[in-house]
Amino acid sequence: MFKKKKQAGLLPGQDAHQLLEAMDKIANGNFEEADVTQFKNPVYAEKINAMLHAFKNANNPVVMRLNETMGVIGDNTLIKDTLDQVETQTKSIQDMESASRHLENSIENISEAMGHIRDNTHEILSSSQNVTNDMNDSIEAVTQSSTRIQTINDRVQDFKGKIGKIEEIVDLVKKVANQSNLLALNASVEAARAGESGKGFAVVADQVRQLSINTAESAEDIVKYVSELKTNIDELATAMEETTQSLGEGSKKVEKSLAALEQMNGQMDSIRGRVDSIFDDIDTQTGVTKSFAMQMGNISESYSVLSKDCLQSGHRIFEVGRYLDKTRSDLVRGCSEITQQDWMRVFEVDHYVLTWRVYNNIVGFEHLQKKQVDNPAGCKLGKWLNRQTDERLVRSSEYTALVKAHNDLHHFATLSWQAKEDGNTEKALAYFNNTYGAFMEYDKALKHLQQRMKELGYNTDTQIAAFGGR
């Protein structure tokens, strides 16, 4: 009896089957409306559909909050700026490290050169001191030579006086010879007068005359030789005087040179002290520079680690964002009934996320496929644009501008993707900047279309609490 009552309370077979089938679809995640025509009693289908609408409408705020959240998380500006700064600072640190290494080598080279200069300065100073000693010895030798020459000169002058005496004696001898010759002539005359008795005296007189002639001739020779000797002695005396004068002048010049050399020695000694001080300072600086180079190396390594950490952090944020974006997309497609104005905001976030996914593809957070960027007709906005039938909207300048801006954004995103595939990161980044610029134009066109839609009566949007964001 109970069984019969239970069966009596069941729905008609066809409606029960359709109702169970609709519930199975819901359980499997298919939130499509039930077909009212398949039910004998349409109330059941309407109730199921009303429940689905209520469920979807309840999800609208969740979807839009996720959409706003994705707009914030999808903004990788901070990550990009951080990575750019870390890369710039890392390059600067590496340049500083390289410069410090060059500085270290330069300091070592300077230290080595200063060592050679110091050694050479010491050698020059030692040689200069030796030269000073040699010049002092030379001055002493010149002074002694000058004294000796003066002594010789004095003796020569004395000898000149004696030569004068010899000349006087020779003159006297010549006079005696002349007188003897006259006497001999007179004696010969007298002997001739005496005749035979004067012959012996004549012989003696002739011998005396001959002797006086010889004496006179010898005296002439002596005068000649003495004259030549006197001339030579005069020349010698003059040469010795000139030599003495030259030695004196040379001695004065040497003394001046010695004074200049001694002054130079003092300066060289001062330079040696400074060179020694500089060498000690450079030696100290060498140690400091080596320590600085080592510290710069450590800083460079730290920045390399920091760069890796930033990349890892960016990658984790990217992964969280992708999970949220997947959830947002699933909910917006099947679990909500957002308004046309809500869709505009979804389209905005979609392409903002796409723009930054282009950057993520460049830095290696993900590897995009070409179809993910080069398919403007296949994205949510592309499909929405193709579905529109409101001529007031489709024929508007705002609609046309959005189509162009949308295509431009996908175009530059594709160029960046291709450049990355070709291994040209610099070119890929340049096209990313074009992509970002195209997004700004796209965002502007989208807002203009939103305003146009409001003017046409598409006014409803889902209200959610605002916490800030992009």
Written account of the structure:
This protein has 470 residues and is mainly alpha-helical. The chain has 2 domains: 38-91 and 314-455, no CATH class; 113-302, Helix Hairpins (Orthogonal Bundle). The protein is built from 11 helices and no strands. It has helices at 2-8, 13-27, 42-73, 77-194, 199-334, 340-363, 370-373, 380-387, 391-394, 397-421, 425-455. The longest helix is centred in the middle third of the chain and has 136 residues, at 199-334. It is rod-shaped and about 220 Å long. Mean pLDDT is 78; it is low at 1-9.
Task: List its salient traits.
Helix Hairpins; 470 residues; rod-shaped; disordered N terminus; mainly alpha
Euclidean distance between termini CA atoms: 68 Å
Using only C-alpha atoms, the radius of gyration works out to 65 Å
What is the helix content? Answer: over 70%
Number of helices: 11
Largest sheet: none
Proportion of strand residues? under 5%
**Gross morphology:** rod-shaped
Could you write a compact summary of the structure shown?
The chain contains eleven helices and no strands.
Task: Please describe the topology of this protein.
Elements: H1 2-8, H2 13-27, H3 42-73, H4 77-194, H5 199-334, H6 340-363, H7 370-373, H8 380-387, H9 391-394, H10 397-421, H11 425-455
Helix pairs in contact: 3-5, 3-6, 4-5, 6-10, 6-11, 10-11
